[in-house]
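Holo prediction. Input below; ligand is manganese (II) ion.
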Amino acid sequence: MDNKFPGKDISTEDLKSKFPLAAKKNKNHKSKFKISGIEFGGETIPIFAGPNMVESEKLILDVAKNVKKIGAHFLRGGAFKPLTFPYRSKKYNETREDGIKWLGLAKEKYEIPIITEVMEEKYLPMICEVADILQIGSRNMQNYPLITACAKTKKPLMIKRHYGSSLRDWLGSAEYALIEGNEKVILCERGVSVPHTHRSSSRFLLDLQVIPAAQEVTHLPIVVDPSHATFWRHWVEPMALASIASGSDGIMLEVHPDPENSAVDPLQPINYENFNKLMIKMNKLAKEIMNRKIL
Ligand code: PEP
Ligand code: MN
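Structure of the complex:
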C-alpha cells in the first residue's frame, strides 16, 4: 500500500517514527502560542522587519522606531552573521557583540520584541538577554548541537530551512528542538537552490508549495522570508503577497532606511515607504481572502 503523501517524500511511518513531536496529531491540529504577547498560528500573521545586519546603534534605533510605527510585530537584525565570503568590513567585526546591545536598546526604547540569529553557543547567554526569538540560520539548519543548545534555553526558536533541504529533513531539525521540551518552534522558508539549468531568476527560488505541504504534516507555524528568497527588492512585494495567499503564518522582511547603502545584500531590502505600502496590501489580502489579519 502506498503510504506516502502524494508528491512528497514523507511517509505515514515518518510521522510516527522520525518526527512524532513535529507531526500533526489530527487534521485540525495546529500549534498556537504567544511570544511576547503576539500569537503565532492564530488569526494574526506576525511580521518581522528590520535590516539584514545591525550596522550601528543609530540605524537600529531608526529602524525600530519606523517599523514599529508601521505595524511590524518583531524587529529583525543580525549581529552575528553567516556571511558567505570571509572578507568582512571592519564595521562587521566591531559590531557583533555591540549589535546585540543595540538591539536591546531598540527593544527597550520602542517596545518591540527582537529576533536575531545565533551562530555559536558561546554567545547564547548574551543573546538570550535581548532576544525574544532565537533564529537558526539556513546554513545552520543541520547544526544539531546548536539547535539543542538553543532549545534548552527555553527561548522560542525559528529554524530557517536550509536552501538544499527537503521538508523531511527540515522537520527532523525541528524535532531536535521539540525533544528538549521547547514547544515554541517556528519554521521559516527562505528560498531553495535549484539546479542551474532550471534557474529562471535569482540565486534562490521561493518554495511557495512547501507552505501547504508543511501544513499538511506539521502543526508548527510556518513563516516565509521573501527577502532572502528573491534577493531582489522588486520581487519582495509579489512574493510576500503570494506567501500570505499560500497560507503563511508570518512574514520576515528586510527593511532599511537607505537600501542601496545597506552594509549587507543591498539589493534586497525595501525602504520604509514601500514597507508601509506592503503592510497595507498584505493586511487587505489577509483580511479579505484569508480570514486573518496583520494590522
Ligand atoms: C538572515 O535572516 O539574516 C539570514 C542570514 O538568512 P538565511 O539564514 O536564510 O540566509
Ligand atoms: Mn542575509
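Residues 52, 228, 264-265 surround manganese (II) ion (ligand 2) (CB under 6 Å). That is the main takeaway for now.
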